[in-house]
Write a structure and sequence with these properties.
alpha/beta, Rossmann fold, five-stranded parallel β-sheet, 5 strands
Length: 216
């Protein structure tokens, strides 16, 4: 902590000090439920010429069919608690769901630069020889999350705050458990991302600006 970097020798020419940022082909975006991640992502994509893909658009792209009912049944198995990778990959439904979304993501990447909200792993994108930036959007204010959740068709009828908090947690469990099955890294842990955006501290507008700056 007491180190004075002003007394360091000139670092010019030392590659470890001269890393350069390159615009990624794909933004791999994870977000906590009700953190405004999708809203931030959609706007940033519109401003910067990236295609935006989430559950709805990816299911439309996929050649293999997966109904929303099948997806909901699978997600219900991921809701209650965080699972180990071993338990997730033992689910027969996991392999079908992963195959469908992997196929859709492959097609999305073939169409041009894009942002994938959830469903994508760095392993898949890297295997397709596409550059990527891993981004996490999160929020800390549970009261604001409750307000946002009640605007969702899924939870607008849930009037009890404590029950709604459980539902918000369950939505995050679904995302974390699916990610756990696809990658050897933990969803939401800062060291697994290149950029973490706190939408409560930054606000939606500033979060959009920061994400946009990485897409230019």
């Amino acid at each position: 902590m007491a180190e004075d970097i002003r007394k360091m020798e000139n670092t010019k020419g030392i590659m470890a000090f001269e890393k350069r940022y390159h615009k990624p082909y794909c933004i791999i975006l994870d977000s906590e439920y009700c953190s405004m991640g999708r809203m931030i992502a959609i706007t940033a994509c519109k401003l910067n010429g990236y295609a935006y893909h989430d559950t709805v658009s990816l299911l439309k792209l996929a050649k293999e069919r997966l109904s929303l009912e099948e997806l909901w049944m699978f997600e219900d198995k991921l809701r209650e608690k965080r699972l180990t990778q071993e338990k997730v990959v033992k689910m027969p439904e996991f392999h079908k769901v992963k195959a469908v979304f992997d196929q859709a993501i492959t097609l999305a990447l073939a169409q041009g630069p894009c942002l994938i909200h959830e469903w994508a792993s760095k392993q898949l994108v890297a295997s397709l020889r596409r550059s990527y930036l891993r981004v996490m959007v999160y929020a800390e204010d549970m009261n604001d999350k409750l307000v946002r959740a009640r605007l969702s068709p899924l939870y607008k009828q849930v009037l009890d705050d404590e029950l709604l908090k459980i539902k918000i947690k369950e939505e995050d469990n679904i995302r974390a458990n699916y990610h756990q099955g696809c990658a050897n890294s933990e969803w939401g842990m800062k060291e697994n991302y290149d950029l973490c955006l706190n939408s409560d501290a930054l606000g939606q507008e500033m979060a959009i600006k920061l994400l946009s700056s990485c897409m230019q």
